[in-house]
């Protein structure tokens, strides 16, 4: 029978290995295990695993770790892996350096880093308001929990832990949007080679879906009661200003939240929203009723040098998309009304007052895409829209006062 090959070293021998003595002085010593693997016992007593090998005719030396952190069995396993690479013509030393670099790079590719990169790409396509909505929700609900995690390490369970508190709080629409945005960041990570899969798919159906009630509108008939609730709401002036601006102008919540002082000409009573903030990427001119101008002047004094006309009460940044929802909830309209619902109430109210649909659509930035038509509607209709919105703002005052009067009619809208 062929002679059985046995390894030269044992656990007991390695555990008790000591340096050699030369003239009574400790010196380095090598204990060979076979096939190039040996334990280097330093004069200091430290023990290191080494693998000597040849590649392309050159002798090389691979460090495998220090004993006892790397046991004899582990050293043999690592030596075997290195020999497999050598047989394929791969230098295990260089391969180890490359793998370490990949691990370091992966650790640096955090969810926060990928999020910033993804938003940078989207900034070229999205309006400023939409970009800020995405960033704010990720800052509020996601980055504090998984922002520092390597994006490649995230699992469906990690995402579940981010979203579960939103479900518990009943913030189902916020949950839907946050989940969608996490998924978009992870899709980008897959597309750019930072991940091989997107775990957001494994959270599909795990949470309660929001109902259509979140997008309900109270309609013009419900406005008097709402205005009374708004008048009695002890919220921050900026929050109240956002809600009132939606009512006075019919503008989108994001358009109002992202408004900056330089967009307003309060002497002329005009608000010019730049194209990059508009859904249709066109400048939108909004006439301001007297009531809006008065409030805006007060807010400019209140907020001083803030970048935004209606900044967050917390830190002067752009107010979050939930600020209106939270205010409505405190007023007793949670789940019954949204900023979109207020905008719809304005549209319906103006229709009931007899104003032409084309003028209302222009005011709400729902005009046709044809540029010639758009220019006409913005310019020629501005004076008529200014009259329309002043009549509307006056009607809101009448509603608030509780006066029982006949519905106001458009004075010249149909002319």
Descriptive keywords:
415 residues; alpha+beta; Double Stranded RNA Binding Domain; hpI Integrase, Chain A; 3 domains; four-stranded antiparallel sheet; disordered N terminus; disordered C terminus
Secondary-structure element order, as H and E?
A: HEEEEEEHHHHHHHHHHEEEHHHHH
Number of distinct helices: 16
Number of strands: 9
CATH class of the largest domain: Mainly Alpha
What share of the residues does DSSP label as strand, in percent? 5-15%
**Major beta-sheet overview:** 4 strands, antiparallel
Arrangement of strands in the largest sheet:
3-4-5-6
Number of domains: 3
Which outline best applies?
elongated
List segments where confidence is low: pLDDT < 50 over at least 5 consecutive residues: 1-6, 369-377, 403-409, 411-415
Mean of pLDDT: 86
Fraction in helix:
40-55%
CATH architecture descriptor text of the largest domain: Orthogonal Bundle
Q: Any idea what the radius of gyration is?
A: 34 Å
Describe the fold and architecture.
- The protein is α+β, with helices and mostly antiparallel strands.
- It contains 16 helices and 9 strands.
- The protein folds into 3 domains: 91 residues, Integrase, DNA-binding domain (Double Stranded RNA Binding Domain), CATH 3.30.160.390; 100 residues, Tyrosine recombinase, N-terminal domain (DNA polymerase, domain 1), CATH 1.10.150; 187 residues, hpI Integrase, Chain A (Orthogonal Bundle), CATH 1.10.443.10.
- The strands form 3 sheets. It has a 4-stranded antiparallel β-sheet, with helices on one face. A 3-stranded antiparallel β-sheet has the order 7-8-9.
- Helix 5 packs across helix 8, helix 7 runs antiparallel to helix 8 and helix 15 packs across helix 16.
- It is elongated.
- Keywords: DNA integration, DNA recombination, DNA-binding.
- InterPro entries: CB, DNA_brk_join_enz, Integrase-like_cat_sf, Integrase_catalytic, Integrase_DNA-bd_sf, Integrase_DNA_bind_dom, Integrase_recombinase_N, Phage_int_M.
- Belongs to the 'phage' integrase family.
């Amino acid at each position: 029978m062929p002679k059985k090959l046995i390894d030269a070293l044992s656990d007991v021998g390695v555990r008790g290995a000591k340096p050699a003595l030369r003239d009574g002085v400790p010196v380095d010593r090598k204990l060979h295990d076979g096939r190039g693997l040996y334990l280097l016992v330093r004069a200091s007593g430290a023990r290191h695993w080494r693998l000597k090998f040849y590649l392309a005719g050159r002798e090389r030396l691979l460090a495998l770790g220090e004993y006892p952190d790397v046991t004899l069995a582990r050293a043999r396993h690592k030596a075997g892996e290195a020999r497999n690479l050598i047989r394929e013509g791969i230098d295990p030393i260089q391969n180890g350096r490359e793998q370490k670099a990949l691990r370091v790079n992966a650790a640096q590719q955090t969810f926060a880093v990928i999020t910033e990169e993804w938003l940078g790409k989207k900034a070229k396509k999205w309006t400023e308001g939409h970009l800020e909505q995405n960033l704010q929700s990720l800052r509020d609900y996601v980055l504090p929990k998984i922002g520092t995690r390597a994006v490649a390490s995230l699992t469906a369970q990690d995402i579940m832990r981010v979203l579960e508190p939103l479900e518990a709080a009943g913030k189902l629409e916020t949950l839907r949007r946050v989940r969608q945005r996490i998924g978009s960041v992870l899709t980008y990570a897959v597309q750019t080679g930072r991940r091989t899969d997107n775990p957001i798919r494994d959270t599909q159906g795990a949470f309660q879906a929001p109902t259509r009630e979140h997008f309900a509108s109270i309609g013009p008939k419900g406005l008097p009661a709402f205005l009374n609730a708004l008048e009695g709401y002890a919220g921050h002036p900026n929050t109240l200003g956002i809600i009132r601006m939606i009512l006075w102008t019919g503008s989108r919540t994001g358009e109002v939240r992202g408004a900056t002082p330089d967009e307003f000409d309060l002497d002329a009573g005009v608000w010019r929203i730049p194209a990059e903030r508009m859904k249709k990427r066109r400048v939108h001119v909004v006439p301001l009723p007297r009531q809006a101008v008065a409030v805006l002047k007060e807010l400019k004094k209140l907020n001083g040098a803030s970048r935004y006309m209606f900044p967050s009460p917390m830190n002067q940044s752009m107010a979050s998309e939930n600020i209106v929802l939270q205010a409505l909830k405190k007023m007793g309209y949670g789940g019954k009304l949204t900023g979109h619902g207020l905008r719809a109430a304005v549209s319906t109210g103006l229709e009931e007052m007899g104003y032409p649909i084309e003028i209302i659509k222009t005011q709400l930035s729902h005009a046709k895409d044809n540029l010639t038509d758009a220019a006409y509607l913005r310019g020629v209709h501005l004076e008529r829209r200014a009259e329309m919105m002043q009549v509307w703002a006056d009607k809101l005052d009448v509603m608030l006062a509780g006066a029982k009067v006949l519905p106001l009619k458009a004075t010249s809208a149909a002319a």
